[in-house]
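WARN retry 2 of 3 for item q-0093 after timeout on previous attempt; input resubmitted unchanged.
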Amino acid sequence: SCSAQQLPIQTATASSVESNRYVAYWAVDGNPTSRWASDGPAADGAPEEQWLLLDMGGVRFIDSVNLEWERAYSRDYEVQVSIDGNIWETVRSIQSENHGEVQVGMLNTVGRYVRILSHEGDRNYGISLYEVKIFGDSDENCAPPPTTCLADVIELGAAPASSSSDAGPPCSAAPAAHCDCAPTWSLLTHP
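OK item q-0093 returned
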């Protein structure tokens, strides 16, 4: 069976950096006070796509991704995976109204690369992540445990978020510890 251990990240790259004080690597360095920050928004104020790309050095089984957003958080983003760094699969699309820790769990997928692709960041500062952690198993062929839901999104903030998945229509977005709606997903929000 698959484990859910923190997987080492070999490299981190980003679409942009605000300055050399906020490089991509600082989102994966294990230090909760350092962070990656993207450039700010376009001069016309239009949302700009920004991304953080993480390379685990080999194909891995991916169970979950934890994100620790700074106050300049993404309001609309995707968690994507890729085996080759060229073809990307969106495993979760998330709309959020709060910064802080977000746990995107029960992904049950494989990939070498994980990309956080933001479609709408802070209107004044772009986006910024203190820490990103990927959990799973180094054996891409491990047997994932059976689940009653294919995905959980837990936002550990006061404001609700929403999520979508290709797995099917959503269950209720009420706060809960689990969901019982196979083969769909549930959004979990904790105050």
